[in-house]
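Title: Comparing notes on inverse folding

I've been comparing how different people in this forum approach sequence design from structure. To keep things fair, I'm posting one structure and asking everyone to reply with a full sequence. Here's the target:
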């Protein structure tokens, strides 16, 4: 089914209808398929390099903890997604084979040889941002892929603490549902970090959280995210960034020095392009602004040498110094007659086109 209707995966309504049409008499399996789908397993499989036990157990645990699914059924449906979609459809490397329901487990629990649980490898402190614990470190030997646990004993884990994994060798960071805060410099300068999975519960990403993570090519931001701090994704390998409409505040230098960045769309919840937001993004070619935007900050697009065109809406009433210095030689602004953008272009000798 997944091979024949692969394009339906990215359309929730179409995929849901398709599953129900193909398995009309199998309500239990329909529910299992859609539960895992709604958790985002398909999109995470698309981004993963290797579908191994560590990757899969996150979903098994969440199905059990959040939905009350039995270990057997959770194991079965996650193994189906990994093997059938990940391996057979997408050709991903996969260490997991599908077991018959009741014949598992195909996915092993994360237990250590000492008998301790995976969660015992984490170091915690009291969170300073909310009611719960913050992760400050990880003591495991296998630290390339870390699945951050949302419980420690009887307490909720809600935060990745400031500086906790900065300059570490982590390659994949998977946060389970319940985390709300990613602290200052939490993963900064992690040169090998190439995959980050964030749950819907994350609300705040602090300053420089992922700064200088050069191997990070893509990230899916949670749909309930509220704030993103200064330089959070500065000098990463991101090609684009989909900022959710829930975000109402972003800091300066957000995507500065991201030379692989090609396209960005600003949601209408953001009224300001912050200072140096895209400075020296030399690969940036397409920028989509909205009709509620008020401010374009200083050096916002400074050094964007591939940017040759931008539409500035009439709502913009402030444009900072050197906002478009260093753009493409053919750079032109499209704006309305009498708009602030037209005045700015005249004053700064920037080519413009009236509409």
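Reply #1:
Here's my take.
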């Amino acid at each position: 089914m997944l091979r024949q209707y692969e394009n339906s995966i990215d359309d929730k309504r179409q995929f849901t209808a398709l599953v129900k049409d193909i398995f009309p008499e199998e309500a239990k399996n329909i529910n299992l398929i859609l539960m895992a789908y709604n958790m985002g397993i398909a999109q995470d499989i698309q981004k993963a390099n290797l579908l191994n036990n560590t990757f899969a157990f996150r979903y098994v645990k969440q199905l059990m903890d959040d939905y009350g699914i039995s270990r057997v059924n959770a194991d079965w449906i996650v193994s189906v997604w990994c093997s059938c979609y990940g391996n057979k459809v997408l050709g991903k490397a996969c260490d997991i084979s599908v077991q018959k329901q009741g014949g598992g487990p195909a996915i092993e629990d994360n237990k250590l040889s000492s008998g301790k649980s995976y969660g015992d490898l984490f170091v915690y402190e009291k969170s300073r941002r909310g009611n719960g614990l913050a992760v400050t470190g990880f003591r495991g030997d296998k630290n390339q892929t870390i699945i951050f646990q949302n419980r420690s004993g009887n307490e909720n884990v809600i935060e990745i603490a400031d500086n906790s994994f900065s300059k570490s060798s982590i390659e994949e960071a998977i946060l389970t549902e319940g985390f709300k805060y990613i602290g200052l410099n939490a993963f900064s300068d992690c040169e090998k970090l190439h995959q980050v999975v964030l749950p819907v519960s994350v609300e705040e990403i602090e300053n420089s959280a992922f700064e200088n993570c050069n191997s990070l090519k893509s990230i899916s931001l949670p749909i309930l995210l509220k704030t993103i701090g200064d330089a959070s994704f500065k000098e990463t390998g991101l090609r684009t960034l989909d900022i959710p409409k829930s975000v109402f505040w972003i800091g300066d230098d957000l995507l500065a020095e991201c030379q692989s960045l090609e396209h960005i769309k600003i949601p209408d919840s953001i009224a300001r392009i912050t200072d140096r937001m895209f400075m020296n993004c030399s690969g940036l070619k397409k920028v989509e602004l909205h009709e509620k935007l008020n401010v374009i900050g200083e050096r916002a697009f400074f050094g964007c040498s591939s940017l040759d065109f931008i539409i500035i809406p009439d709502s913009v009433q402030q444009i900072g110094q050197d906002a478009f210095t260093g753009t493409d030689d053919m750079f032109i602004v499209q704006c309305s007659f009498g708009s602030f953008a037209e005045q700015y272009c005249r004053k700064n000798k920037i080519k413009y086109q009236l509409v």
